[in-house]
Amino acid sequence: MSKDDTRLQDISKPLNEQLVKIRFEDLMPLPAPFKGPEDEPPLTDPKPDWKKDYVTELDGYIGIDMPMPKNGVEEKELVQKFLNGLKKLLSENNNWEFLQPLMLSFEYCAQCQTCSDACPVYLSSGKKEIYRPTYRAEIVRRIIKKYLTKSGKIFGKFVGADIELNANTVLRLAEDAYRCTLCRRCAQRCPIGVDNGLITHEIRKLFSAELGIAPKPLHELGTVQHLEKGSSTGLTPEGFADIIEFIEDDIEEKIGKRIKIPVDEKGADILLIHNAGEYLSWPENPAAFAILFEEAGLSWTLSSEMVGYDGVNYGVWYDDVQLARVALKHAEIARKLDVNKIVIGECGHAHKAITIIADRVFHDEYNIPRESCLTLLWDLYRKGRFNLDPDKNDFPVTLHDPCNVVRLMGIVEPQRKILRAIAPQFREMSPNGVYNYCCGGGSGFAIMQSMNFPEFRNKLSARMKVKQVLEAFSDCISPDINKYFCLPCSNCKGATRDAFVHYGIWDKCRIIYSGLVELMVNAMVDLEEPFVEWEWH
Amino acid sequence: MAISLLQLSSYVAFAIFIVAVLAKWRKWSSMPIHLRWELYPVPHEKGRSEYGGSYYEEPDWWTKPRETTLAGELKDMLAEMLFIKRAFEYKRDLWIVTYPFHLGIYLILAWLALLFVGGLTEAYAGLSIQSTHPWSQLIYYLTLLTGSLGIILGTLGCIGTLIVRFVDTGMRKWSTPLHYFNLLFIFVVFILGAYAWLTVDNNFSTARAYMTSLVSFGSTDLPQLNGVLTAHVILLELLFVYIPFTKMSHFVGKYFTFHKVYWDDEPNLRGSHIEDKVREVLKYRVDWAAPHYVPGMTWAEEATCVEPWGEKKEACEVK
Questions:
Q1: Beta partners for A301?
Q2: Model pLDDT for residues B250-290, shown as the tens digit of each residue
Q3: Global pTM value
Q4: Do B48 and A410 touch (CB under 8 A)?
Q5: Cβ contact, residue pair A158, B181, below 8 Å
Q6: Can you tell me the distance from the alpha carbon of B275 to that of B249, in angstroms, rounded to the nearest whole number?
Q7: What is the ipTM of this complex?
Q8: What sign for the dihedral angle of Cα A371, A373, A376, A379?
Q9: Using one digit for the tens of pLDDT, what is the confidence trace for A345-381?
Q10: Which architecture characterizes domain B5-31+67-262 according to CATH?
Q11: Positions of CATH 1.20.950.20 in chain B
């Protein structure tokens, strides 16, 4: 492993220098069947022409795929705007949303670094300093100290007021805010309760809300497109109607029975909201929900209204007001449909966004109960509403815990209880539950596909999860045995799909990834043919 | 008898400490409600905290009473306060030194409390702590025990913490001179205390006599303090004044980070006091400058009456 001499102050270095370069020998090794560099794609350098418009001078990767101001006058404006934003971030009116947790985290970090080894990116990188959970947090803390406090002005470096705020600092910091998956595993370890994940979230908010800087997949093609066109995928209401018809046909073909998927059924008990990515990439997931809900005899509906058929809320990763705009739209649709509750499909961040984070945005008629599909499915299972045969799932299965559902929401057991009941060869990965590792696609990484960002995700943020999966199946890693990686979260599936392709997991190990409901339907006694298809797609 | 300058400085230092800690508490507790940001395991989740579960595992959770347990919170709190559990589990090489350091501080606080009790006993009950009365004996030996152990553990722990901060690459690179100053400050107080204990005040009778003079507000004799003891008292006073204004006041912040952030899972139910607070914060005026904001509108207006790209909607009902 190469020595990393990067210091906090290096963030301000001129932009002709890349702070960190990832080398293969630094990366955390992967278990069998991986033996060395020859078993995985090589690391690449950023293309020289990217440097003109984008910030490659952190680690060579580009998370923010919008042109950045990198010349004279604009740079001064950038620094001033950053400072203005920082002041607003620390003000009650602009940031009541997280002022107290943020200030607490700024005030009390003792730099003990107990959190560092919790971070999968830091560990996967071979412990590169810029990925330490404390790195970006401490930079902002010291900028505040130097530019916004009297003690910093009087005592200077003695109290840590030693980060030069220039355009290089701002630009590199913006990129570094997109090197953390916001999984908050680091926060679990802090003896004082300092939350570096939150500080990263808040840095992202500062850049978005004051400077208008955010990755396009999150903002322009994310929340803006979601609210403007109906879905962050670009799926329109017309397209949604076509897909529902396709899914109904597909269900009929698979189970020999046509199910009418309820859409816009006013007065239904449940409004089910899926991540729209499911309709486009994994339609078998909403199909499986329809089959199970039909079997259980539930009163439920989907919405075909713009925004209502896409449960994602990318605002949760970078901008509270954008989050609220999407969440309130979801609530409004539920109110108009007069449902008793919103049930969130297999999407982790959608769970957290509408249930936890937006909980203190809703009030009065918009404050409609929200429930996890995992809780509902377990309840239906234990009440005997499904006729399932576990022998149909007699293959090795392991489970991923989406951070947003488990560590950040406390839904741990329902999905496990189902798996223990329907999958005889279910085994836990380690660590699991609330101490799990992120899939690597958290905080928007799963959908950030510009330039070389996928390489960062596959090599660094998803590497730990790939390692965990391989270890969970170490007793049956041979490609002769089909194995099932259960991922009850769309974004986790997206990140895993890309990582599995990157590492050639299907060919090397015959592991497929899919949701929980697919596995449940696969176990249905009435089904003549398996629902799970053992092929890569 | 008149109150000496040294005694006066002790009262002032203690008063500043109390007022500053209360002010800090007030600062944190008067901040507006924030969005939920809990982190599991949440130890008050009855029957679920062991594996990190929450009430969201309960079907139709909003129709059922929340089951919480204070014992769960106390267990987690005490494990962290008394044993620094997270450092033990996740950074053992730091824990080995920071635990005795913190334990030393706790014991010195207990020692100060025992000196205070001893002082009250001597000043107002007329009972000498060096007498054979059972109460006196109890206070005498407890004072001796906590003081001796506190000085030893605190001094060694402080040295160890300084060394680890310097030797551990991550900690050294991220530490400011202030981190070292704070530790050195505490070390000097400890080492002066240790020197005084070993040389002139083996059974803490001088320390108790000084405390007695304080609690009696000058009506008992001020003991003769040599240069070392005087310096120790003054530095201890300065430390008390200094701590609330530094990271070392994390004993205050820690309550809020855990109870008001990590463990704050109180749902916003219809008609609840949380809902009232939400209505209030949604009235805050926002002046973010990015294109998708309209500066000067309330938070609720920003969320409902502005198009996602920043244009104000022509007609809009604020939600």
A1: A271
A2: 999 999 999 999 999 999 999 999 999 999 999 999 999 99
A3: 0.96
A4: yes
A5: yes
A6: 32
A7: 0.96
A8: negative
A9: 999 999 999 999 999 999 999 999 999 999 999 999 9
A10: Up-down Bundle (1.20)
A11: 5-31+67-262
